Amino acid sequence: MYGELLMGTLVALAAPQEPQETREEVYEIRIPAIEIEIPEIEIPEYVVVLRTSGPGVEFQYQGTEFFLPYMDISIPSFTIEIPQGEYAYGHAAAHERSFQDVEMDTTFAVERGARLELRNHAGEIVVRHWDRDQIRLEAVYSSDDRIKVFHTPTAVRVKSEARYGHPDAVDYELTIPAWMEVDLWGFYTDILVDGIQNNVRVETLEGDIEVRNVRGESSLQSVEGDVSLQRSSGRFQIHSTDGEVTVIGFEGEAYAESIDGDIRLEDIRSASVEAKTVDGDVFYEGTIADNGRYKLSTHDGDVMISLRGNVNATVSVATFEGEFEADFPVQLEPGTQASRKFSFVIGNGSARLELHTFDGDIQLLRR
C-alpha cells in the first residue's frame, strides 16, 4: 500500500461554492469612451492533484482559492484567445454628426461691487465697458457644449462645459460696467480688455493679451504669447514667458518680465519701473522722477533708454560683453572708470537708474 492520496477537485471559476461578498465600485469615465463587446469566453476546467504520505489532508476552501498547509500546488497553465471581431464606438452616432455653431446673446442686471470671473478652454475673450449696471454676454460656441452662468451678489462666474471631454473653442464678448473687477483665465485663448476702471487679472497659457484704458492694480500673464498694455494707469505686473511685452502710455508703477522676448516701454510716467528679460532687448522712453527707482536688465540683449526733460539721477551701468554709449557728456563718479561696471550722476542724482546687460550694448539718449 503506497499511502498515496489522490484527490481530484474540479474547479469551476464561474460557480463558487460559497456565497461571495460583492462590492460595487463607481468609476468616473471621461467620454468619448470605447465600448467593446467581446463574445463570452469559456475558461477551461482543471484538476488539482495533491500527493502526500499522510493519512489525510486538511485544507480550507474560500471562493476559488485553496489554502493547504505545507503543500505546494502546481496548476497547469492555459491560454485565453480573444476571437477576432469588429469593435465600434458605443456612441458612434453622436461622434459622426457635425456640430453647429450656436450664438448666445443675453443681458442681465449685476449688483454693484460684484466681480466677473470667466474661464475659457480655447477661443477668444473680449471685455468692454458701458455705463449700465448690467452685463451683456454674447458667445459663439459648439452645439455640443453649454455655457453656464453662476450669479451671486459678489460674483458672476461664466464657463463652458462639454457633454464629452473638454469643450470646443468659445468666442466670448462681454459688455460690463466700468466699475467691475475682472478675473479672466484661458488655456488657448486670446484676451482683450478695454475701459475697466478697476483691478484686472488676466492669465492665459497660450494666447495674446491686450489691455487698454484700465485703471487699477492689475496682473497680466501669458506663458506663450505677447502682452500689450496701452493708455492705462495704476500698478501693473506683466509677465510673458515666451513673448514680447509692450507698454505704451502708462502712468503708475510697472513691473515687466519676459524670458524669451523684448520689453518695450514707451511714454511712461512713473516713479517705479522694473523691466527684465533673459533673451531680448529692453527699451524705455519716459520720465525719470526725482527719488524714483528704475531697473532695466537683460542677459542676452541690448538696453536702450530715452530720457525726457530734466533728469536728476545716479546711473549705474554694467555690461560684460558690450559697449556703453551716451549722446551727451557724462562724468564718472570719483574712483570709477569706464569698464564693465561704473556709475555717474546726472543733475543732483536723487533718482536711481540701473542699466544691466551681460551680452549686449547699453545706449543712453536724451530728448
The N- to C-terminal Cα distance equals 118 Å
Uncertain segments are: 1-17, 19-36, 87-98
Q: What is the overall shape?
A: elongated
Strand content: over 45%
The run of helices and strands is EEEEHEEEEEEEEEEEEEEEEEEEEE
Q: Give me the side-by-side strand order of the main sheet.
A: 11-12-14-15-13
What is the overall number of helices? 1
Number of beta strands: 25
Our count of domains comes out at 3
Radius of gyration: 35 Å
Task: Give the mean pLDDT.
Answer: 82
Pfam family, one: DUF4097
Protein name: DUF4097 domain-containing protein
InterPro entries: Toastrack_DUF4097
Descriptive account of the structure:
This is DUF4097 domain-containing protein. It comes from Candidatus Kutchimonas denitrificans. The protein is an all-beta fold and 367 residues long. Helix content is 1%, strand content 53%. It contains 1 helix and 25 strands. It is elongated.
